[in-house]
Design a protein that fits this description.
This protein is mainly alpha-helical. The chain has helices at about 5, 20-30, 40-50, 60-75. The chain starts with a helix and ends in a 28-residue tail after the last helix.
């Protein structure tokens, strides 16, 4: 996934940032929304913030919805988090210590 897409704040489209993840999933349960191309990038940002996943290319809306739903299934507490409370994915810190070869 393009790091810029996952971390740059931008227009969330029709997604209300005050919704909880559970409310988002409920709203996305309407079949018409599952193939709405305009949701692809906002969902990619939300999914990246929730899972830290890195895709080779931006996945389909359906794949993103499934990934978000799986994250909530694995950690039910995520359902009550508001979208605006999600933080950008953290990049792993690189150790400042240089490993010594044995």
């Amino acid at each position: 996934m393009d790091t810029r897409i996952a971390s740059t704040p931008s227009d969330p489209g029709p997604i209300d940032l005050d919704w909880t993840i559970g409310q988002l999933l409920e709203w996305l349960s309407d079949d018409i929304r599952q193939h709405e191309v305009t949701l692809q990038h906002p969902l990619a940002r939300i999914e990246a913030q929730m899972t830290g996943a890195h895709w080779a290319r931006t996945p389909s809306t359906v794949a993103l919805i499934r990934s978000i739903a799986a994250a909530v299934r694995d950690a039910p507490a995520l359902a009550s988090i508001r979208i605006r409370e999600l933080s950008p994915p953290q990049t792993p810190r690189v150790s400042e210590r240089i490993p010594q070869l044995a």
